[in-house]
Amino acid sequence: MEQNIQEAAEFVRARGFDAPFAAAFVLGTGLGTLADELTDVVSIPYTDIPNFPKSGVSGHAARLVAGTLEGKPILLFQGRSHYYETGDAGAMRVPVGLVKALGLRRLVLTNAAGSVRAEIRPGSLVALSDHLNLSGGNPLLRDHTEGRFVSLTGAYDSGLRATLQAAAAKTGIQVPEGVYAWLSGPSFETPAEIRMVQILGGDLVGMSTVPEVILARYYGLDVASISVVTNLAAGIEGASPSHQETKDTAAEASDKFKRLIRAFVAELPHD
Q: What is the mean pLDDT of residues 161-179?
């Protein structure tokens, strides 16, 4: 696997992905338009990069993009491969390993999520403080190194969360913190499953991100994560989620999301 990562890194470096990037971002459903904010853009389809996963979900452009935002070079993954597409919780291992191989130390994961709390409304942005892995999957299941025993205490870096809150304050955007519950998908959760998540202390529910957090900690990266709330979860106020609703609401919230990310990048220190 590490050889696959090095092959991908050599390929993208040779095509202009060699800046000292301030941070990398994985962009979830409907959030790929952040790439439109960048200048000096270089991009490559995932299908061209050796050993990269394929993404077959609408709302994911499946491109690696580099460019400048707020005067700082950043790296964007426009879309991800999901556990429910592949049956492999480690589907994003090469992209996450690539972040490390290119010398970055900050990874920001974004997603579209359902709210299990009626007070967290669709269109909200939530910074993740922790997660519940309810999928039964783990991206390190077939790893045989000692590194697989990854501590996830403080997985969502407190310094990056503070930077997010500083950016939120500057933009006037409310960004509460919450716990994200990962279920495998692709079917949406049942109302009974949502009640379970509430009892266990979850605030949001979704089908991604957690494997990438585990992989990022495996590679020693600092992690932050932002959810765009696209719907109320099943059974809350009679909600019955759909993928179209997810895409539509994420697109509507994208301007607020982009303002927050601009301010966040501006707050990042120069390494």
A: 96
Query: What are the residue ranges spanned by the domains of the chain?
Result: 2-267
* pLDDT the model gives residue 99: 97
Tokens for 113? 């999520």
Distances (CA, A) of 105 to 98, 102, 219: 11, 9, 9
Share of the chain above pLDDT 90, in %: 79
**What's the CATH fold of domain 2-267?**
Rossmann fold (3.40.50)
Q: 191-208: b or e for each residue (b if 16 or more CB lie within 10 Å)?
A: eebbbbbbeeebbbbbbb
Residue-wise pLDDT tens digits, 207-229? 999 999 999 999 999 999 999 99
Give the tokens for residue 52.
């990269």
Q: Is the peptide bond before 269 cis (omega within 30 degrees of 0)?
A: no
